UniProtKB/TrEMBL annotation:
GO terms for molecular function: DNA-binding transcription factor activity; transcription cis-regulatory region binding. The keyword Transcription regulation applies. Residues 41-60 bind DNA. Gene3D superfamilies: Tetracycline Repressor, domain 2 (1.10.357.10). The keyword DNA-binding applies. Residues 19-78 form the HTH tetR-type domain. This is TetR family transcriptional regulator. Keywords: DNA-binding, Transcription, Transcription regulation. It comes from the Bacteria.
Length: 205
């Protein structure tokens, strides 16, 4: 009886260590991928985590699986932010903050930026999470539409795609630091036709 209890405790301890090691690897990979992007070698991730390269592959079948795990966590965090913003009293402020959060994430995380810019079929394993993000974005859009604050033809999928376009547009100019300007242009473009960012009727209408 006593021996069985000790063995059971040892198994739990080993499993807890494995969970901690996996979490440590994911954190290290997130840090390295954010800095260096998708082309970073597995050895660099192992070095950051302070483990041997083989340890990485004991937890993840491939580098791609590790990358998907890291990026999935980032998408989940962005989706959680969107859900929180559903409680924001001003629907337009909520939508603006969501869009800003997505653009800012690309600006500070190179791997996320690269994945966001890639065609969906090039990033297997993330389709369901992207769909969930689009669905939550759609809720934010509908609230803003009900308030008459954004275009009636806008969708959550449009917004997620436009977040990518805003940062990629800045990168295309050779000056990624201009992304706040592109973000402001994007947000203004969400308003009903004929209004500027302050809701005033434009002379061009």
């Amino acid at each position: 009886m006593l021996r069985g209890t000790v063995v059971g405790e040892e198994v739990v301890h080993v499993r807890a260590d494995a969970v901690r090691n996996r979490e440590s690897l994911v954190r290290a990979a997130g840090s390295v991928l954010a800095e260096s992007g998708l082309d970073v070698p597995v050895a660099a991730i192992a070095d950051r985590a302070g483990v041997a390269k083989g340890t990485v592959f004991r937890h993840f079948a491939s580098k791609d699986e590790l990358v998907v795990t890291v990026v999935a966590g980032l998408i989940d965090d962005l989706a959680a932010r969107a859900e929180t913003l559903l409680a924001e009293p001003d629907p337009l402020t909520a939508l603006r903050e969501f869009v800003a959060a997505g653009v800012e994430l690309q600006a500070r995380d190179l791997a996320f930026c690269q994945v966001a810019a890639a065609a969906e079929q090039q990033v297997p394993g993330l389709t369901d999470r992207r769909l969930r993000l689009e669905q939550i974005a759609d809720l934010l859009v509908r609230r803003a539409q009900d308030a008459g604050a954004v275009r009636a033809d806008l969708t959550g999928r449009d917004v997620v795609g436009l977040m990518t376009a805003a940062y990629q547009g800045a990168c295309a100019t050779g000056d990624p630091l201009r992304w706040p300007y592109f973000l402001s242009v994007l947000v203004d473009g969400l308003h009903p036709t004929g209004q500027d960012g302050a809701g005033r009727t434009s002379d061009r209408a």
